[in-house]
């Protein structure tokens, strides 16, 4: 079977599908019509599927046996952003919602892989599962997909993501930790309100919050491992509503991004210790919440090597590059925590087409001239993995 040739024949379908999805985006947990579209396409192909929660879809193509399975994942949700690509004929028609991260392309490429592998299913040495995942942007959908996968003998998972900072046609992948764990911290400070002219009669939560924020930054710089990327960033602070009133309460929140269990534990300890220490010094009460949101995305070494070998059947070897570690996060980590997995980036940057804006930007768009590469990578890895006893 020639997966590349079959995928190239799907290019027109991929572009048409991706642009339809781009024009009709749906937010996380609201992907009703997107899911219905996927179900319609699968039904037309005669490919069986089951629902995962309300809108997620798990499709299955059985090959020569069902004892060995590989799972391919593509997410489908959009973002609450008003699109500013007025030059596009397929720009979003939904006010305040757009595909600003490329999930429209992921869904299209995964549907393409279904179409390709359905043509060669009699030659497959095992079974392929296709995870059309809802709600990636709110870190919900992957957990539910993985729960459903527990009923199947899945041996490996592959996820692809388009990248607007990587040239079109370039693939980036590396073994090990490639995307960070993400935690949220929320800090509630209770002081004692009063008039700005008599701070001695009040207990100022604003000063306490400000000191906590500064001390977190100091502790992060001085106590975290300098040889491992990490960040503790405050993204919001609210306290007070009038110039001459010291408020009763203050609040701030932020994110922790780390690439190892040790750093993750250390960063959480810093936030908690600093806030409690400052609270004691200022005489305020404090409540610190640290919420585990997304795990570290980890690429299995053997499966990554197999994926790179598969990729050489699809593109020139010089187009396969090392993937730089990022402190961005992905809920594909739920797959990589449980199965030997690979998560890779496929470039869609083209300055002439103005597809070099960052993800989550209102001008985000992608060069869809080589979407067939994504479909081919999905399909080729499935074929090659099933032909091997292990990665």
Task: Explain how this protein is built.
- With 391 residues, this protein is α/β, with parallel strands linked by helices.
- The chain folds into two domains: 269 residues, Aminopeptidase; 114 residues, Alpha-Beta Plaits.
- 34% of the residues lie in helices and 26% in strands.
- The chain has an eight-stranded mixed sheet with strand order 1-2-4-3-5-16-6-15.
- Strand 3, helix 4 and strand 4 form a beta-alpha-beta unit.
- Helix 2 runs antiparallel to helix 4 and helix 3 runs parallel beside helix 4.
- The longest helix has 22 residues.
- It is elongated.
- The two termini are 21 Å apart.
Which features characterize this protein?
16 strands; four-stranded antiparallel β-sheet; eight-stranded mixed β-sheet; Alpha-Beta Plaits; Aminopeptidase; 34% helix; alpha/beta; 10 helices; single chain; 391 residues; elongated
């Amino acid at each position: 079977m020639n997966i590349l040739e079959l995928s190239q024949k799907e290019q027109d379908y991929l572009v048409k599908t991706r642009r339809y999805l781009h024009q009709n985006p749906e937010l996380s947990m609201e992907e009703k019509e997107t899911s219905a579209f996927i179900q319609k396409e699968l039904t037309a192909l005669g490919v069986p599927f089951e629902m995962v929660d309300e809108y997620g879809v798990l499709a299955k193509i059985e090959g020569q046996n069902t004892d060995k399975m590989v799972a391919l994942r593509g997410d489908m949700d959009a973002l609450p952003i008003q699109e500013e690509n007025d030059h596009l004929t397929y720009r979003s028609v939904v006010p305040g919602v757009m595909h600003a991260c490329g999930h429209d392309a992921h869904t299209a490429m995964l549907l393409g892989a279904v179409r390709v592998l359905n043509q060669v299913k009699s030659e497959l040495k095992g079974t392929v599962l296709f995870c059309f995942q809802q709600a990636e942007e709110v870190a919900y959908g992957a957990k539910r997909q993985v729960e459903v996968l527990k009923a199947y003998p899945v041996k490996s998972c592959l996820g692809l993501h388009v990248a607007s900072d990587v040239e079109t046609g370039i693939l980036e992948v590396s073994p090990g930790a490639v995307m960070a764990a993400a935690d949220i911290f929320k800090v509630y400070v209770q002081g004692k309100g009063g008039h700005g002219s008599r701070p001695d009669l009040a207990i100022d939560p604003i000063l306490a919050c400000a000191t906590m924020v500064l001390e977190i930054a100091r502790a992060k710089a001085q106590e975290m491992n300098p040889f491992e990327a990490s960040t503790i960033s405050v993204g919001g602070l609210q306290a007070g509503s009038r110039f001459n009133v010291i408020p009763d309460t203050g609040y701030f929140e932020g994110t922790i991004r780390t690439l190892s269990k040790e750093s993750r534990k250390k960063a959480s300890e810093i936030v908690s210790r600093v806030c409690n220490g400052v609270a004691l010094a200022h005489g305020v009460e404090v409540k610190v919440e640290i919420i585990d949101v997304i795990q570290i995305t980890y690429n299995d070494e053997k499966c990554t090597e197999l994926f790179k070998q598969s990729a050489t059947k699809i593109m020139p070897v010089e187009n396969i590059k090392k993937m730089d570690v990022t402190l961005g996060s992905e809920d594909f980590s739920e797959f990589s925590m449980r199965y030997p997995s690979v998560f890779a980036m496929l470039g869609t940057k083209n300055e002439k087409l103005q597809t070099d804006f960052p993800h989550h930007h209102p001008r985000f768009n992608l060069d869809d001239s080589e979407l067939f590469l994504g479909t081919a990578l999905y399909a080729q890895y499935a074929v090659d993995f099933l032909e091997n006893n292990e990665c």
